Automatic annotation (TrEMBL):
<dbReference type="InterPro" id="IPR037524">
    <property type="entry name" value="PA14/GLEYA"/>
</dbReference>
<protein>
    <submittedName>
        <fullName>Glycoside hydrolase family 3 C-terminal domain-containing protein</fullName>
    </submittedName>
</protein>
<dbReference type="Pfam" id="PF14310">
    <property type="entry name" value="Fn3-like"/>
</dbReference>
<dbReference type="InterPro" id="IPR026891">
    <property type="entry name" value="Fn3-like"/>
</dbReference>
<dbReference type="InterPro" id="IPR050288">
    <property type="entry name" value="Cellulose_deg_GH3"/>
</dbReference>
<comment type="similarity">
    <text>Belongs to the glycosyl hydrolase 3 family.</text>
</comment>
<feature type="domain" description="PA14">
    <location>
        <begin position="456"/>
        <end position="586"/>
    </location>
</feature>
<dbReference type="InterPro" id="IPR002772">
    <property type="entry name" value="Glyco_hydro_3_C"/>
</dbReference>
<dbReference type="Pfam" id="PF01915">
    <property type="entry name" value="Glyco_hydro_3_C"/>
</dbReference>
<dbReference type="InterPro" id="IPR001764">
    <property type="entry name" value="Glyco_hydro_3_N"/>
</dbReference>
<dbReference type="InterPro" id="IPR017853">
    <property type="entry name" value="GH"/>
</dbReference>
<dbReference type="InterPro" id="IPR036881">
    <property type="entry name" value="Glyco_hydro_3_C_sf"/>
</dbReference>
<keyword id="KW-0378">Hydrolase</keyword>
<dbReference type="GO" id="GO:0016787">
    <property type="term" value="F:hydrolase activity"/>
</dbReference>
<dbReference type="Pfam" id="PF00933">
    <property type="entry name" value="Glyco_hydro_3"/>
</dbReference>
<dbReference type="InterPro" id="IPR036962">
    <property type="entry name" value="Glyco_hydro_3_N_sf"/>
</dbReference>
<dbReference type="InterPro" id="IPR013783">
    <property type="entry name" value="Ig-like_fold"/>
</dbReference>
Length: 855
């Protein structure tokens, strides 16, 4: 690990020592040694004293927002305003106190960190610490008290719009990474806020979908990471999810909050809402919600935990003690993070160390999925000495991602795109040709021309669904990324209207192209341009003169039950025709296609419609692979995509959303300056139909039954004997490793004891690198159906060529257990357990067994 990164981690540890040390007053020899309580030791005493000073009305003012991101100050007793901020990948830019509009600050930039999927792909607690340290320090410097992250909901569904914000599909992987990250954030005198508790696994009707898993599934799959955040990291903030849990919002679920979170786990921090959740005063108050942050009402006094709660208390319907507990928790956090401490840590922001940390996190999360030989050498890493002409294509080649996605947006000082990273890496020594390939089918108007924005920051069209063709009654309103629509209604016609502001890049004649099945009308600035009715989707074209730098109001009205696409040929040759880009590919020494998704696909509030790469990328990739064997397919995405060309490709890399230093990090990997060491934290299925929610017909807007039970992700694929395109835990290197000599500390484990698993890892290749040894466990004699393999531990080691190191992982009784619905508790059954070690789910190289006795 580079010395500078080590120094950053050392700094994080030193902060921990500082914040938790026994700070004593220096005493003279004749002065009695009176110990001064540390901040931690004096928290409860301070909370008691402050609580006793507050009036009922003042207490009420502390349990709901008084602005978009802050809580009321009480000057009379010296309580300051408490400030919260998104998000999990960097401190959000400042917005106005009472609206979502930007505050217009010019000094609110922050380090744009790689997304948490990248942290998960590192399989490295030190990377989690680094991410948390930067996030906490920058939040503190921006005078924030809560940072609204990290996120740990699991990637059950590849279509889920917020997968990119979270830590993969496995509960143990998420748990083992979120704990060090929380600690690193909170060492900066900032409260971390894990989210979203619990079962927020789809954006489709996210405020209304009713999650109804069985208790075993809830406990074994969807709660362990939250439990670890509470019990091991002492997290101070927890954000409830949007969805319902068995008919009531998760924020006010007695079972989730009072029975489990605050009961069994003993959570002492604050449970707060996300913005605009479906709660009510009585249930939210009685069943554990502490802080209401956003409700769609005209006044903060009308929040459910504002005047309505005050009235209920005065009427005797809700005890004052219920309110006192909420206020106590809020005060506890305030004192714990030093809001009343003149020595509170100052934080730091936009430092060189933070930028290098962002680069380190991004490189460690890159996953080399495939790397086959062409001639005598593998395609990657590309050799600068022999490569003189590179063709670069793909929608992510020069795309920035920081300002999209929703609440995770970050206003960074800069963002290095993959293309910019290549240019910085290669300088003038290599000729880089850049193209944007046009597919053979009609593509929608590119997002480059779309000036209108969804609230998540993504270029978008507004889409309205109407009851009838006359558009007399609106049914639903949403947004859509492209000027392309596919009906989900085969029996009757959809009646939709789509609107967007379109801004040409160059003045001149634009040829509009329409393919539709049904009735289609386009107006521009209120003037009818195209009226089209067709049953077979025949292409219709129309020329229109448009001026650059002028916005045009485009409106589409469509009545039909099939599909339409509106595209155009615009001046300036934004897209390159097939013959030209394929000729360039054949002539190039290497081709790099930066494809994947964007925050038009991975984004808060809406799920993806399918698992395909958008805008016919598959066609273009397949043709490039035919044209040049040394084509590197480099995908940037936060969710799984189908790869029908994977067998054909010789080099595939997965890069996630890599933050502000993504381009440098990706180039470091491509040219071998950094050896890739990432492993997939999600399964990459061959087809969407192979995934559990789709195969079991358990994805809809009404309720999620979690029919697959504990068989989430890779567990499902193993149970069903379905081979994915790339398995969970998979990731290659530019060197080779040998894992050997598995040893168990005991072959007979008793109740309450732990077992240590060790093995030797040797770098048998020619370059330094890191390997992740993964431990999977199988209960061979279970009375309930259990997965064939369950991840229970992992250890990442960095090795020079020829070097050998030992990896060590520990198993506890809890690791052996399942949730027993009969006793309503964890149960480890007597019998034989198999330990499996490998460098991916599908590459288990070592096995051993032990017996467990419940004595």
């Amino acid at each position: 690990m580079p010395a500078l990164i080590k120094s950053i981690l050392t700094f994080a540890i030193s902060l921990s020592v500082f914040s938790c040390s026994d700070n004593k007053v220096t005493q003279g020899q004749d002065t009695p040694a009176v110990k001064e309580l540390t901040r931690v030791e004096s928290v409860e005493q301070n909370v008691d004293q402050m609580l006793a000073k507050l009036t009922l009305e003042e207490k009420i003012s502390l349990v709901h927002a008084s602005g978009k991101f802050h809580i009321n100050a009480i000057d009379r007793v010296g309580i300051p305003e408490m400030w919260l901020s998104d998000g999990p990948h960097g401190v959000r830019h400042q917005i106005q106190r009472d609206s979502w509009s930007s505050a217009g600050w010019t000094d609110d930039h922050a380090t744009y960190l790689p997304h948490l999927t990248s942290v998960a792909a590192s399989w490295d607690p030190e990377i989690a610490i680094l991410h948390g340290q930067v996030l906490g320090a920058e939040a503190r410097e921006r005078k924030k008290d809560f940072i609204l992250g990290p996120g740990i909901n699991l990637a059950r569904l590849p279509l889920y719009g917020r997968n990119f914000e979270y830590m993969g599909e496995d509960p143990i992987l998420a748990a083992k990474l979120v704990v060090p990250q929380i600690k690193a954030i909170q060492q900066n005198d900032v409260a971390a806020t894990v989210k979203h508790y619990a079962l927020n696994t789809q954006e489709l009707n996210r405020t209304g979908v009713n999650a109804k898993p069985d208790e075993r599934t809830l406990r074994e799959v969807y709660l362990p990471a939250f439990e670890a955040a509470v019990k091991e990291a002492n997290v101070l903030g927890m954000m409830g999810s949007y969805n319902e849990y068995y008919g009531t919002n998760a924020n006010q679920s007695k079972h989730l909050v009072m029975d489990i979170l605050k009961g069994e786990w003993g959570y002492q921090g604050v449970l707060l809402t996300d913005w605009n959740v479906d709660i009510n005063t009585h249930d939210a108050a009685m069943y554990g919600l502490d802080l209401e942050m956003g409700t769609d009402v005209p006044s903060y006094d009308e929040y459910f935990l504002a005047q309505p709660l005050l009235k209920e208390i005065k009427a005797g319907n809700i005890p004052v003690s219920v309110l006192d507990d909420k206020v106590r928790r809020i005060l506890r956090v305030q004192y714990s993070i030093g809001m009343y401490d003149e020595n509170r840590l100052p934080g730091a922001r936009n430092t060189k160390e933070h930028q290098l940390a962002a680069r380190k996190i991004a490189t460690d999360g890159v996953v080399l999925l495939k790397n086959e030989a062409v001639g005598n050498e593998n395609v990657l890493p590309l050799a600068k000495s022999s490569i003189k002409n590179i063709l670069v294509l793909g929608p992510n080649a020069d795309k920035k991602h920081g300002t999209g996605g929703g609440s995770s947006e970050v206003k960074s000082l800069y963002e290095v795109t993959p293309l910019a990273g290549l240019k910085a890496q290669l300088g003038e020594d290599v000729n880089i040709t850049v193209m944007r390939a046009r597919s053979s089918t009609l593509a929608p108007i590119a997002s480059d021309y779309v000036a209108s924005r969804h609230w998540t920051g993504t270029p978008a069209w507004n889409i309205s669904y109407f009851k009838d063709k006359q558009r007399s009654e609106i049914i639903n309103e949403s947004w859509i990324v492209d000027s392309q629509f596919k009906s989900q209604n085969s029996e009757s016609n959809d009646h939709i209207t789509m609107k967007a502001n379109i801004k040409p890049l160059k003045s001149g004649s634009h040829t509009l192209n329409v393919s539709a099945v049904g009735d289609f009308t386009l107006t521009v600035d209120g003037t009818d341009i195209l009226t089209y009715s067709n049953a077979d989707g025949t292409l219709l074209s129309h020329d229109i003169d448009l001026n650059a730098e002028q916005n045009y109001a485009f409106e589409i009205n469509y009545d039909g039950n099939t599909s339409f696409t509106l595209g155009w040929n615009a001046p300036g040759n934004l897209l390159t025709d097939e013959a030209e880009y394929l000729a360039a590919a054949k002539a190039a020494d290497a081709v790099i296609y930066f494809g994947g998704l964007s925050h038009g696909d991975d984004r808060e509030s809406i799920d993806r419609p399918d698992m395909k790469l958008p805008n016919n990328q598959d066609e273009i990739i397949s043709k490039l692979l035919n044209a040049n064997e040394k084509t590197v397919v480099f995908l940037v995405a936060g969710s799984a995509v189908e790869m029908p060309w994977a067998e054909q490709a010789n080099a595939i890399v997965w890069g996630w959303y890599g933050g502000m230093e993504a381009g440098h990090a990706f180039s470091d990997i491509i040219f071998g300056d950094i050896n890739p060491s990432g492993k997939m934290p999600i399964t990459l299925p061959e087809k969407l139909a192979h995934t559990a929610p789709i195969a079991l017909n358990d994805y809809n807007a009404e309720e999620s039954l979690y029919t697959e039970g504990v068989f989430i992700g890779y567990r499902w694929f193993e149970q069903q004997n379905i081979k994915p395109t790339f398995a969970f835990g998979h990731g290659l290197s530019y060197t080779d490793f040998q894992v050997s000599n598995i040893k168990l500390s005991t072959k007979s484990l008793n109740s309450g004891e732990s077992l240590t698993v060790t093995a030797q890892v040797k770098n048998t290749g020619k370059v330094a690198g890191a390997e992740v040894v993964q431990l999977y466990l199988h209960d061979k004699q279970a009375s309930v159906e259990r997965p064939t393999k369950e991840l229970k531990g992992f250890d990442k080691v960095f090795l020079q060529p020829g070097e050998t190191k030992q990896v060590t992982m520990m198993l506890t009784q809890r690791d052996l257990s399942f949730w027993d619905i009969n006793t309503n508790d964890w149960l480890a059954e007597q019998g034989e357990f198999e330990v499996m070690l490998g460098n991916s789910l599908e590459n288990i190289t070592l096995r051993d067994t032990f017996n467990y006795s419940a004595k």
